[in-house]
Amino acid sequence: MNATKITLDENELPKRWYNIQADLPTPLDPPLNPATKEPATPDDLSAIFPMSLIKQEMSTDRWITIPEEVRDIYKLWRPSPLYRALRLERALKTPARIYYKWEGVSPPGSHKPNTAVPQTYYNAKAGIERITTETGAGQWGSALSFATRLFDLECTIYMVRISYDQKPYRRVLMETWGGEVFASPSDKTECGRKFLAETPDTTGSLGMAISEAVEDAATHDNANYALGSVLNHVMLHQSIIGLEMKKQFEIAEESPDMMFGCVGGGSNFAGAVFPYIGDVLRGEVGRDGGDGGESGDGDRYPKIISCEPMSCPTLTKGAYAYDFGDAAQMTPLLKMYTLGYRFVPAGIHAGGLRYHGAAPLVSKLTHEGYMDAVAYKQTDVFKSALLFVRTEGFLLAPETAHCVHGVIEEALRCRKTGEEKVLFFCGSGHGDFDLTAYDDYLNGRIVDPGDPTDAIRESLSKLPKV
Ligand SMILES: *Cc1c(COP(=O)(O)O)cnc(C)c1O
């Protein structure tokens, strides 16, 4: 079948999210209270999260019903299309077949509203009036600003300084939906003032911005905090991507041999691949690793690969250890791959990938060999993004361009070997607000930052003792 686009009807929108915690061979290591280093209790988290989300965070139920109000909003852009990248295949002269799920169709332009909408819904139900958050590239801030508007909540966004300067129109977009945006570190919070005093010229980081947003929520009764990635309930909400995809691949009569996704905190990648890994964890599909051979009734376990930037190589160069989620040591300690909570990555354009940690679920499954990770240079990634926009037409977010680069490299390998593999990547978002980055690339101003190895070693030497 040579369809360009495989769509689903809105009544085929999944009614439940998939929770991979139900199928893990061993449970996750629990988050720890940062002061006592004892497992965090629901009460520890209730200062900044509603109990409904805390329950989802800890749940081991395999399926969790999507509230009707949330499904109604999802229908504004979901089910999202699965595309076959025929023109990219032709340009690469590859026998591989390339598919991608396109999350760029949401109003804010990425997968992030898949979780911003339910998180806002549960906070609204709990009587919360304002939600605080951080944003890197601005995709998460946009998603939360959009979602809070639909439920009539206020939204306060701490935007990483370098992105605030690089992407002024993202700020405007957040403001059109009614969000209030501050460049982080800011003078609005105690920890922000401290970061500014220590490093007045800092580019900021997601770790610092998270500290500011958490402090703001923890010190105001009517406010809660929302995180756009990393946490288990975010991975849960994003499973909508993979659940839709499974139906779409069935229609296409294909199944992926290799799946690629870019990883910042890991949520779009997890959303796409966890429903597939779940089949293996439950023993329904054989796990023969390698290049995804055939097993059972023709079901195959794909090779799964996360793609990250060389300047923030969390999964490829990080330690698998307990660490803080933020720079000011306010969040619970999470067991994850980390570059160290004080690590400040170089100011690459893929702001959404500049996070020192990664989701505990993605970390554990990577650690246990269910998937692999690779890291790419910024210049290579933009070269692939340009080939993509010139063949498929969509301008990709610089984040997304990382996994497109992975797919293109593999497709070129297939050209040499003649293998007709089915390759997939998760199209996490469009780059319509990343034009400064593309301008820089087209005019030869994109460079690769220096090797971060020494900075990583230094920062890993300061991991909290547990
Ligand atoms: C935020 C973002 C990412 C990185 O976050 P994950 O949680 O790893 O998905 C990737 N792509 C886009 C377009 C984003 O907005």
Q: Any idea what the shape is?
A: globular
Each distinct ligand: pyridoxal-5'-phosphate
User: Number of helical runs?
Assistant: 18
Weakly predicted, low-confidence segments: 289-298
CATH class of the domain at 5-11 and 69-109 and 232-460: Alpha Beta
Q: Tell me the helix content.
A: 25-40%
Placed side by side, the strands forming the largest sheet appear as 1-4-5-17-10-13-16
Q: For the record, give the distance between the C-alpha atoms at the N and C termini, rounded to a whole number.
A: 54 Å
Write the layout of secondary structure elements.
Blueprint: E1 5-6, E2 16-18, H1 42-45, H2 51-58, E3 63-65, H3 68-74, E4 82-84, H4 86-92, E5 97-102, H5 113-125, E6 130-135, H6 139-150, E7 154-160, H7 161-166, H8 168-176, E8 180-184, H9 190-198, H10 206-218, E9 223-225, H11 232-252, E10 258-262, H12 267-281, E11 294-295, E12 299-300, E13 303-309, H13 314-317, E14 319-324, E15 333-338, H14 360-367, E16 372-376, H15 378-391, H16 398-417, E17 422-427, H17 435-442, H18 453-460
Parallel strand pairs: 5-17, 6-7, 6-9, 7-8, 10-13, 10-17, 13-16
Antiparallel strand pairs: 1-4, 2-3, 4-5, 11-12, 14-15
Helix pairs in contact: 2-11, 3-5, 5-6, 6-8, 9-10, 11-12, 15-16
